[in-house]
């Protein structure tokens, strides 16, 4: 990811939502959002960036996923050797289907569209 690819993504989002007056994008504090290219693009775009606080694990899906991983693989488990630990990690990632219901509610794909009506 960089500023150019982010701008291309924003352009696609705008093209798919021609009726929207304003499109708010919730973003983390990645450097490419602060690039010099971004203000120039955003000046005439429908996109408005809304930044998460610097550390917002409940709002960041990857943080939720890692917490689930830790709870499933690490908490309450003792691994005698590194290969045992690695095997538990590998088993978790190759067997994600067994956690489908838990992950579906934790990593929701429901986004609120504001201003549609």
UniProtKB/TrEMBL annotation:
Occurrences of domain Tc1-like transposase DDE (ranges): 1-85
Pfam family, one: DDE_3
Protein name (database record): Transposase
């Amino acid at each position: 990811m960089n500023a150019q690819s982010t701008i291309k993504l924003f352009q696609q989002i705008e093209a798919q939502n021609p009726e929207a007056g304003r499109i708010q994008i919730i973003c983390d504090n990645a450097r490419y959002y602060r690039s010099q290219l971004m203000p120039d693009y955003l000046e005439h775009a429908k996109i408005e960036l809304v930044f998460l606080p610097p550390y917002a694990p409940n709002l960041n899906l990857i943080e939720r996923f890692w917490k689930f991983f830790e709870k499933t693989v690490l908490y309450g488990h003792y691994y005698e050797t590194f290969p045992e630990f690695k095997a538990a990690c590998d088993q978790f990632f190759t067997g994600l289907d067994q956690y489908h219901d838990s992950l579906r509610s934790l990593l929701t794909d429901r986004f609120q569209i504001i201003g549609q009506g």
